[in-house]
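LAB NOTEBOOK - FOLDING QUEUE
OPERATOR: T.R.
BATCH SIZE: 2
PURPOSE: Compare the predicted structure-token outputs for two unrelated chains run back to back under identical settings.
PRIORITY: normal
REVIEWER: second-year student, initials M.K.

ITEM 1
FIELD SEQUENCE / FIELD STRUCTURE:
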Amino acid sequence: MSTQADSYGTQSPGSTTANGAEASQSAAHLMELTARATEQWRADAKDEAAALLAEAREQCAGLLRAAREEADQLVATARRTATKTTDEARAEAYQVREQTAAVRQAHERDVARLDQIATDHREHLRRHLTGLLDQVNAEPDQPAR
């Protein structure tokens, strides 16, 4: 019956000390196993965290490198575009200045020609009027027709 009594949680008076020592050793052994397992899990977690951190840093460095390269390419493209646009604007400004100078010269020639025509016409009218006045002054005795 004592076997049955032990299985039901009751102990016989002589086996209490032996079972207590055995239970203490088992508990100590379990605690030691638990401590080792916990330490191993902790070490594994640390290693995994370090590996994840290293991978994240690597990815970060790669992304940063790629972003810098893309930024450098964008800046280079923008500079080329700005240089091209500036060169085109300068060429167009030069053409406009040349065209404006040609139009100005043509207008100045036209103004000089019109000034000469006006001077010639004024001189012609002056001569004509002077001639008419001379005729009028020369014939005072004759009646008007």
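ITEM 2
FIELD SEQUENCE / FIELD STRUCTURE:
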Amino acid sequence: MRKKIINLLFFIVLLTPIACALAEENQDVVVGELMKVGEYYLQNKCYDLSIRFFGKLLNNYPATRFTPKILMNIGNAYRATGKYDEALNYWEEVIGKYPQSEEAPLALQSEINTLIFLRKYKEAISKIDEFFSRYPQNENAPQILFKKGQCYEGMGNLKKALEEYKSFIKRFPRHPLADKAFQKVEQIAVTIATTPSPEERTLRELSELLDLLNTLIYVKCYLLN
């Protein structure tokens, strides 16, 4: 029964060209209704059907206010099937063609998360910088900045990771992630200071680390008051 319903819903999109001809002035209304079918597929993990449906919808209605959302959904469906390159391409199209849409920052976040998952840290860092360049006031900006430190950790560049976590604390001292950033700074500072071959560490570097730890303790006590 469920399969018959799904097939019936998919058949609806075949009528889209007719709907276009009959309701050109109300395309947003038509697409808004048809979107529910594709979203049904997506929510029920019928990813291949979702991709085909949204692709057909996009071909028939290439320029409506739902276009960024359609592209975003296709990217999400590809990600769910493990086709990450295809997903990244669709999200990139959202960002490039519709940078002011509400889907654009979400697409960029999806790119960042996927690149980190794939351990493509350099590309992820580039996208994080792009995010702050495009959407500095976005509500998810703090979480995105925190990921930059994680990327440098993943690359094994602890010194840069330390700088990024310090930057996070400076910009968002009262954010819920600030405490985790403090912990990261403390852990990394100790790791750097106790790394083998101490002769490679200058007294200046060690002094800076000690000063940093003292500053962190002071700031943390200040925030707790």
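REVIEWER COMMENT (ITEM 2): The CA atoms of residues 125 and 148 lie 6 Å apart.
FOLLOW-UP: none requested
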